[in-house]
Amino acid sequence: MDLKTWFITGASSGFGHAFSEHAIEKGHNVVATARRVAQLDSLRALAPDRVLTCELDVTQPQQVENAVKQAFGRFSSIDVLVNNAGYGIVGAFEETSDAELRAQLETNFFGSMNLIRSVLSMMRERGSGAIVNISSMGGQMSFAGFSAYSASKFALEGVSEALAQEVAPFGIKVLIVEPGQFRTNLAGDGMRHMPEISAYEQTVGATRAFAHSMHGTQPGDPRKAAVVIEAALKSEKTTLRLPLGSDAIDAIRKHAQWILADIAQWEDLASDTRIDETN
User: Fold this and answer.
1) Which residues on neighbouring strands pair with residue 83, listed in sequence order?
2) Pairwise CA distance, residues 168 & 97, whole Å
3) How many CB atoms neighbour CB 27 within 10 A?
4) What is the mean pLDDT of the segment spanning 244-250?
5) What pLDDT digit, counting tens, does each position of 126-172 carry?
6) Reduced to 3 states, what is the DSSP secondary structure of residue 242?
7) CB of 200 within 8 A of CB of 94?
8) What does the alpha-carbon distance between residue 182 and residue 194 come to, in Å, rounded to a whole number?
9) Is the per-residue pLDDT at 181 higher than 90?
10) CB 151 within 8 A of CB 186
11) Are 244 and 220 in contact (CB under 8 A)?
12) Domain 5-249: CATH superfamily, name plus number
C-alpha cells in the first residue's frame, strides 16, 4: 500500500475535515491544522499514532513554519499538501472595503503561497510530492457579488497553472480542485456578508439570497470529493483542473463555450492588429 503523509489546512470542518477523515481511513499519516486546534481532537482520536494536529493560521508565516517543522519532526516528510483553508465574501465590489479585499486575498491566496513555499524545496529535493489547491468553480468564472472571492481563487489558479509546469520535471504534481456546491460551512460561518448599498439590489440581491439559502442544502458530499481527489493524484497523468459536482462541470463548460463564442465573433477584427511594415 502506497501510504503518504497528508498536510491539510482548514481541517476543523467541511472539506478539510472530510479530507482528513478519508486520508486517516486509508491508512495515511495526517497533519490536520486549524486556527483552533481543539476542534481537531476528534480527528486525532481516530488514529493517535498517525495524526498530528497543529494550530495554524495560514496568514501567519511563523505559524506556517512551526506547523511544517512539527510535521517533518513527526513523520519526516510531507507528501501531499492540501491548501483548503479559506472563506468567502458576498457583496458588490463597491460594498467591499480595501481591508476586506486584502484580508480575503491574505487567507485564500497568500496563505496557500506561504504553505507551498514552505514545502516546495523539500519535495523538489526528494523528487516527489503533490500540491492540491482547493479553488472553486468561482476560480474559472465569477458572478455579481462574488468579486472578492473569485479574485482570490483566480489568483490561486494562475499561480497553480504556472507552478505545475515549473515543478513537473521534479516529479511534483499540482492539482486545482474546483468544487461546486458541497455540504460545507462555506455558506455558513465561512461566508462574510458586506454592508449593502441599495443600488446593487437588482444585480447582487439574488446572489445574497442564494448564499444565505444554500447553507445546509448543498448536494455535494465532501467525503466523495476526497475519493475523487485521491484517485486523480494516483493517476499516471494527473489533470491540472478537477471540477467537482455536476453543477460545477456544467457551469464551467458553459463558461468555456461563451469564451469561445466571443473569440469567434471578434477573431477577424482582433487578429488584424499587426504592424503594417512599409518599405
Assistant:
1) 133
2) 38
3) 12
4) 95
5) 999 999 999 999 999 999 999 999 999 999 999 999 999 999 999 99
6) strand
7) yes
8) 23
9) no
10) no
11) yes
12) NAD(P)-binding Rossmann-like Domain (3.40.50.720)
User: Could you list the active site residues?
Assistant: 135, 149, 153
Domain boundaries, the chain: 5-249
Non-local CB neighbours of 269 within 8 Å, separated by 6+ positions: none
Is 152:104 a contact under the CB 8 Å cutoff?
yes
CA-closest candidate to residue 24, choices 13, 36, 32:
32
Contact yes or no for 94/79 (Cβ under 8 A): no
Is the model's pTM score more than 0.85? yes
Checking if the pLDDT of 30 tops 90, the result is yes
- Tell me if residue 68 falls in helix, strand or coil: helix
- Classified as helix, coil or strand, 94 is helix
Q: In this structure, how many other beta carbons lie within 10 angstroms of the beta carbon of residue 82?
A: 30
C-alpha span between 44 and 21 (Å, rounded): 10
pLDDT for residue 137: 95
DSSP letter assigned to residue 196: P
pLDDT band (50, 70, 90) for residue 117: very high
Confidence of residue 211 (pLDDT cuts 50, 70, 90): confident
Could you give the angle at the alpha carbon of 184 between the alpha carbons of 137 and 36, nearest 5°? Answer: 120
- For residue 209, give the H/E element and its range: helix 201-213
Alpha-carbon distance 133 to 242, whole Å?
10
Give the pLDDT mean for 19-27. Answer: 96
Confidence of residue 78 (pLDDT cuts 50, 70, 90): very high
Collapsing DSSP to helix, strand or coil, 9 comes out as coil
pLDDT for the residue 189:
80
